[in-house]
Amino acid sequence: MVPLENYLALSGILFSIGFYGVLARRNAVLILMSIELMLNAVSLNFIAFAAYLDPDRIIGAIFAVFVITVAAAEVGLALAIVIRLFRNRATSNVDDAAIMKW
Amino acid sequence: MRDYSLFIPEFIAGGLAAAIIAAELFWPSIRRETLAYLTALAAVAWGVASLFYAGNDPESFQGLIQIDNFTTFFRLMGAGIVAVVALLSAQFLSGRTKTASEYYGLLLVAGCAMVYMASARELITAYIALELLSFCLYILVGYLKRDNLSSEASLKYILLGAFSSAIFLYGMSLIYGVTHSTYYDEIASSLASRSADTGQAAVVGFMLILAGVGFKVSAAPFQWWAPDAYEGAPLPVTAFLSTLSKAAGFALIIRLFTSALTPDAVEWRWAVAIVAGVTMTMGNLVAIQQTSMKRLIAYSSIGQVGYMLVVLAAIGWGDQEVGRNASTTLLLHLTGYVLSTLALFAALTAYFNRTGKDTITGMRGMAETQPFLAMVITVSLFSFAGLPFFAGFATKLFMFQASITGDLLWLVGLAVLNSFISLYYYLMVIRQMYLFNPEEGLTRFKVSPVLWATAGVLMLGVIFIGSYPAPAFEAAERATETLFEQGPSLEATAR
User: Fold this and answer.
1) Nearest-CA distance from B176 to chain A in Å?
2) Most buried residue among B14, B16, B187, B433 by CB atoms closer than 10 A?
3) Per residue in B294-329, pLDDT tens?
4) Searching chain B, which residue's CA lies closest to the CA of residue A27?
5) Interface with chain A: mutation pick from B170, B179, B185, B209, highest number of A CBs within 10 Å
6) Distance, in angstroms, between B163 CA and closest chain A CA?
7) pLDDT over threshold 90, residue A80
8) Contact B148/A89, CB-based, under 8 Å?
9) What does the pLDDT average to over A48-72?
10) β-strands B59-61, B65-67: how paired?
């Protein structure tokens, strides 16, 4: 059986890539995709922990289902807001959305 | 046992929210102001219904949600905030948007989300409630769709909010891995007896959770969304953000940290103390150079969050007795802060409706054009700064007094120093209002009676809590008594 550490390492790598993406990308849609990566890392973590450490109740797997559902809703809402900004200003680049500073 | 009667107040609020949305759908000619007053009435009904739960023994719904005095306290606070914000929005929204019913519906739903955040005793429930509140706020901030600032603020808020949720969740997943449970009680008992080799995972988990909730209550260094979201949002929504979302965040924090994470307080309390110190200093120093009133309030509320985080550090450092006193005073301070902020925004909204100005220089000469509003603003700013006879003085005094434990003296000293700094920029606003003549063409005007009465009542509340805090203190004390009673209190004291 694959040891738990491998799952945790994969999830750590995914999370770090997503974290880097949020900080480095300037397009709102790409930032959202990076956030999705982070959430997938979270789901992977929860499912791995549930399967290895909590096999009777699998609370982690239930949590993962909730994470996926909420993430879908979050992306829907965020895309709606991006479209709103695009209609007002014809850009989805977050650097252009900078009327307000400090 | 499934006892759905525990949620009757939220059923009332949620059902009326749906009814308000349906009302405009089926009856498009209904006046927007009527919708606002209906929302305020719905919030009052919600508050009255929750009064029936006051003083009852704590009851648990499947171990997920606990209805006790703490929940009742936040139910009443939430109902009050929603009612006031609905009244503030009545005049503001008409003429700015085509539809308004979703706005009022979302206010009520956000209030319910706050109750679930305060009552959750399990991580999944807490997370869902947190996201429900955040989603409502994302939409409310961007509600003025044609307004560039509003949609920009909304975008920044949702991107950073989703980012912080992901961080928060990763922290929760690590804690789940360490403790094998998401129930607060079980987390506490397994943290108390955890083996040493899980220490690193637990510490990283605590830090990520702290970062996640720090984002939500806008603690430094995670506060960057707050000034932009505050400035871009419609004025009443700014009031909503700075009261309800802060109160809800602290409700979640108190419940989570006191009932789940205290056994391992050694691992996170130093981080909380540092965050508190940085937050209050940063908020107050940056506030000095602001020109927009909304941004000034954003930074000043970041400073207030710093003061409130001192309490969390005290919960980590002190024993159970200290923790209980500290959380009582946090609730008291939160009440005073909410009252002062709402009074300030009631006056600002009334002024903005008439003049369209929300910069600090735009307030010049308000003492001549509208002396009553100038007085309300002065009272609430003095309350923020913590001058005697106003709520901020008494509540801050109690809070700092309760938080002084041997190791935290430096932090409390820093907080007092920060209060002095904050007085400077509050006085700059007051100077504009009282020492300058109004701009050309602005003469004395009247404000709508609803806003006048709202501002007046809130101002009296601020003065009442400031000069006679006993009743509010007792209410807060009864709210926190259940927090420390049940659960693994034995392990918590033996740490």
Assistant:
1) 8
2) B187
3) 999 999 999 999 999 999 999 988 888 888 999 999
4) B159
5) B170
6) 6
7) yes
8) yes
9) 94
10) antiparallel
B139 vs A: CB within 8 A = yes
Q: Which residues of chain B does A14 touch, with a Cβ-Cβ cutoff of 8 Å? A: none
Looking at residue B31, its pLDDT comes to: 87
| Local structure of residue B446 (DSSP, 8 states) | -
Query: What's the ipTM?
Result: 0.94
The boundaries of the domain holding residue B36 are 4-493
Kindly give the interhelix angle for B101-119 and B246-256, rounded to the nearest 10 degrees: 20
Looking at chain A, which residue has its C-alpha nearest residue B299?
A: A102
All residues at 6 or more sequence positions from A54 whose CB lies less than 8 Å from its CB, including other chains:
A60, B176, B180, B181
Structural domains of chain A, ranges and CATH numbers in brackets:
4-89 (1.10.287.3510)
| B290 phi-psi bin (left φ>0, alpha ψ -120 to 50, beta other) | beta
How far, CA to CA in Å, does B259 sit from each of B114, B165, B236? 18, 21, 34
Question: Rounded CA gap, A7 and A57, in Å?
Answer: 20
Q: Does the predicted TM-score (pTM) go above 0.90?
A: yes
Residue range B50-84, pLDDT digits in tens: 999 988 888 888 889 999 999 999 999 999 999 99
B232 in A contact zone (CB under 8 Å): yes
Contact B145/A at CB under 8 A: yes
B298 touches chain A (CB under 8 A): no
Average pLDDT, chain B: 90
| Res. B288: pLDDT tops 50 | yes
